[in-house]
Amino acid sequence: MESKTQLAPALNFFPTLKPPNKTQSFHQISVLIITFIAYASFHASRKPPSIVKSVLGPKLQSNSSSFDAGWAPFDGPQGTHRLGELDLAFLSAYSIGMYFAGHVGDRIDLRLFLAYGMLGSGVMTCVFGLGYWCNVHMLWYFVFVQVVCGLFQSIGWPCVVAVVGNWFGKTKRGLIMGVWSSHTSVGNIVGSVIASGVLEFGWGWSFVVPGVLVILVGGLVFLFLPVRPEDLGFESLGKGEVEMNGEVDGVGNVVKVESEEAGLLRGENVEGNVGVGTETLTAIGFLEAWRLPGVAPFAFCLFFSKLVSYTFLYWLPFYIRNTAVAGVQLSHKTAGNLSTIFDIGGVFGGILAGLISDMLEARAVTSIAFLILSVPSLVLYRAYGSLSMAANIILMFLAGLLVNGPYALITTAVAADLGTQTLIRGNSRALATVTAIIDGTGSVGAALGPLLAGYISTRGWNSVFLMLILAIVCATLFLIRIARIEIKEKLSGRTWFWHSIDTQ
Description:
By secondary structure, the protein is mostly helical. The chain has helices spanning 9-13, 24-46, 48-56, 79-105, 110-133, 139-153, 156-167, 173-180, 183-198, 205-224, 237-244, 260-266, 286-290, 295-321, 332-338, 340-360, 363-384, 389-419, 431-456, 461-491, 496-500, and strands at 59-60, 67-68, 246-248, 254-257. The strands form 2 sheets. A two-stranded antiparallel sheet has the order 1-2. A two-stranded antiparallel ribbon has the order 3-4. It starts with 8 loop residues before the first helix and ends with a helix. Mean pLDDT is 81; it is low at 60-68 and 239-281.
């Protein structure tokens, strides 16, 4: 089935925004900016649950085993369990929806699909906040809203990665997407600041304001986002890559492609002709995408990596609020604002991981290095983060940098590399599906992490940090085979694995 893309209304209404008045570089920058703002707004609307946890949940009184009232049904001794289950509802729907969203995204207009997801996500975020004014205390209400919101949110990531992948080739992809992927941390920071800033007026505002923000940015996407270069008359990057790697006849059809390495990756001996093949818009199958080289290892690595990252996303403000820093118990607002340091570290981590992976041409080696170093950073943060505010900030920044580095790298540059690799050269409709598989699998881990933290935290935070360290070890194990290939080929003067999936 072919995907039919309509040009964004603003690009039709303002001819000066189209070629030859504007160059391809102009539109590449505009795509980066629009998708950056779009996904930052998605993450801003995910942050309120973590900010309001300390308000909704139970608060243990000093020198007592009794609990102060929070907001039913999240108050009382089982409150942290209920909050963890609420996170599970959202993230389970998000991870399941991600697989379907990527499959659908490869078949319909990405701009309209993304705008639809943003509208639905914003509305459901506002509906959650309405529970405050309507005095809702029924668990099923909040669970239902989070499930529907998670389904809408799952539309965002495959769409933005696919659009950016359409506009940018492999060259410096790690650095470009490392900078671009900071939208996750920027969105978390913006969401934390907004939700914390309006919390004093009632926790409902912490949801309504970010919800309205997502809806407004969805309007920006609908009006201005160009999905593919060819929609504006520019040459498709995919087509250029097919021609660069093969022989083209007089009418532009590819009659021979150098695909020996692709055959090696399949375990086949490839000889000669691959056949006539212009770029197609036929979407790749779900199971076929799973079998592409590198997809499964990076997907399962992200399962554990995202488990760690999202545990911090949903529980860090609660942890800070309930852990004295230099002997001082911080307020809800201060704890929420302080938690943004972790996301600021994540901004630098994503950029640094992308830059290093470009320099080394070794995505797996870079990811493993960050994962290994993140273990002592978590131990140090747990052991010494409460000594002083300075120690807390420095160690939280370091943990954010190392934890979010591989997460950002895998969900952006690696996903784009694997979704545009040699085995599917000529197929421009695989990127959203591959991206959805990788991030969807990661989102299953993201769903389990906060849930487990909610249950394990009742035994003490040392147990939670031990769980996070074990998850990091598991994430590392899944990349060892690819890292060995990268190191072996680097020592022999070649970069076989990533050149095999290179598109530019």
